[in-house]
Design a protein that fits this description.
The protein is α/β, with parallel strands linked by helices and about 475 residues long. The protein has 14 helices and 20 strands. The strands form five sheets. It has a seven-stranded mixed β-sheet, sandwiched between helices. A six-stranded mixed β-sheet has the order 9-8-7-10-11-19, sandwiched between helices. Strands 5-6-20 form a three-stranded antiparallel β-sheet, with no helix packed on it. It starts with 9 loop residues before the first strand and ends with a strand. Bound molecules: succinic acid. Succinic acid binds near residues 152 and 228.
Amino acid sequence: MNKELLKEQAYINGQWIAADTTFEVDNPFDNGVIASVTDCTVEHAQQAINAASDAFKTWSKTTSKERSKFLLSWNDLIIEHADDLAELLTIEQGKPLQEAKNEILYGASYIKWFAEEALRINGDLLPSPDGEKQIQIHKLPVGVVGIITPWNFPQAMIARKVAPALAAGCTVVIKPASETPLSALAMAELADQAGIPAGVINVVPSTASSDIGKALTSSPVVRKISFTGSTAVGKTLMAQAADNVQKVTMELGGNAPFIVFDDANIDSAIEGLMASKFRNSGQTCVCANRIFVHETLYEEFIKRLGNKVSELTLGNGLTEDVQITALINQKGIDKVLRLIDQATESGAEILVGGSPSKEFKNIINPTVLSKVNKDMDIACEEIFGPVIALIPFSDDDEVIAAANNISAGLASYAYTEDRHRINRLIQELEYGMVGINTGKLSNETAPFGGVKESGMGREGSKYGISDYLDIKYACIK
Ligand code: SIN
């Protein structure tokens, strides 16, 4: 791997900053230590906020064209170094190398997209009611943005937040997840090489996550918080951000229903389910979580699904063709095993898997559970592991009500050929995203985000930049 991308220090005001205290980052596959990273304190966060605030004075005055050019150079460097970045991502996060490479390119696609959107931050001229005044609409960057990112997509979530922020003219302080700071620091190194000016991007790795979160939310200089992570932490950050009336974008937990209707093509539904469920070994917010299958095709569905799941290959993410890899940490493993146990104790049946791998210590065998019901913990919580929980159903009203009977509202999926039903699902599923006959929703051109307790704001697409812009109205007589 290219050692120049393995950075262990904080990146503040264009400088690599060491501290007395460090923390270890380990490889989830074998728990081997791969780096000792600067453990930033609240003082470092404050330095980063000051740097971002100073840099904002000039960055916010650059032209869209200049910002676009910087973003394109960053994108080019990321693509040039995609293999190295992917390897780094796999060793710190665990996901299969091909998936890691896909994440790098997925992240880069947001940078390219927002480099182009920077050129389309248009104001407006509105008709005045009395014809005597001119009503101008200006779009201005909100200011310094605090960005807090998760461990499941350590590169793409940074790209998806930082790119629109920079395109809008904002500067950022990033607090990456302490499990996966290396991808964030590598991204900062490439931003540095791309010539993005000092202070525009700052990265403060730290194990003191809540202290850094508090530093960002309590600073009057930080005008917006963008967070991807658990609903519980999101609620805390929102409450803190209220003190300074900071804007927030919250991408929080999901609990996606995946509904297979009686007219579905079974093979394509299984293909979509496998793609959705086993991406990142089940550790995504948009993963299919509750799989509702119509009773008329339930038996056939579970037979074909069971065969496919049994064929999945397990191992080290660096090994070619591996599909299921280690979960992020022991806490994640314990949670998944607890959910399987609680479900089986309450009447669910294990069709495939159901236990930790005997060969690989941090991997859970891909699992299929049948006879799950909506009251089991596994149906009420985000699983975040390679477990398919199957729930039979008999009619449309019942399944739509069950799908909506939850506080989350991020992604949802349905397989059916019926046009009327498709229209009804799009109207009635209480989710920010609805996938019809597909298990893959995410791309840079589409607005990613949720409703209800899955959060607010949208990332990606033409809508994704508006969260980083304030509207100023000028009335001229
Ligand atoms: C997530 O799970 O947090 C993001 C997944 C995606 O961008 O597709």
